[in-house]
Amino acid sequence: DKQSQHVRIEDSFFVDVDTGIRVINSKNVLIKNSLVIGAEAVIGYGCYSAIDIVEPSSSIRIEANELSQCSFGVFAVPSTPPTRDVRITHNEVHNNGDGIYLLGVSDTKVIGNEVLENEWVGIGLLLESSGNSIQNNVALDNGYVDMFHDDASVDNRWRHNTCVTSFGFEIDCP
Length: 174
Known about the structure:
Elements: E1 4-10, E2 13-17, E3 21-24, E4 26-32, E5 35-38, E6 49-54, E7 58-63, E8 66-68, E9 72-76, E10 84-89, E11 92-94, E12 98-103, E13 109-111, E14 114-116, E15 121-126, E16 133-135, E17 138-140, E18 145-149, E19 157-159, E20 166-167
Parallel strand pairs: 1-4, 2-5, 3-6, 4-7, 5-8, 6-9, 7-10, 8-11, 9-12, 10-13, 11-14, 12-15, 13-16, 14-17, 15-18, 16-19, 18-20
């Protein structure tokens, strides 16, 4: 099991795609200043995920991207050991099914993102995600809920976020 290391994707355009950027079993990845727009579909979304993280990965930086028209803007799939040390900062994530949807992650920071007008969840932590920091994000006009965590995802820090709807006792949205 070799890990990809020191990968950089910068100033790139992925337009009218059915799959955006996939991070698989990788370490030290930077995805920055890129645009991912999914393919148009008659029903649903033509793109599965703008950026997804599968298999154990760490030290992933997702910075200043625009992610739109996919089932997921950023999606982390649960793995053993868990994906950790992901930084999702200053992205525009809009018009997806779910915005930022993280399953079973730890030591991850979601900071300063605009997560708007997604069909279901703006920002969500599920499946025993713990030790994460979600702060200074704007999540508004998301269809089901702006910010969400399940009962198994505890010991996370939700601070100084702007949202209208939330589910989860740790979330501090006014």
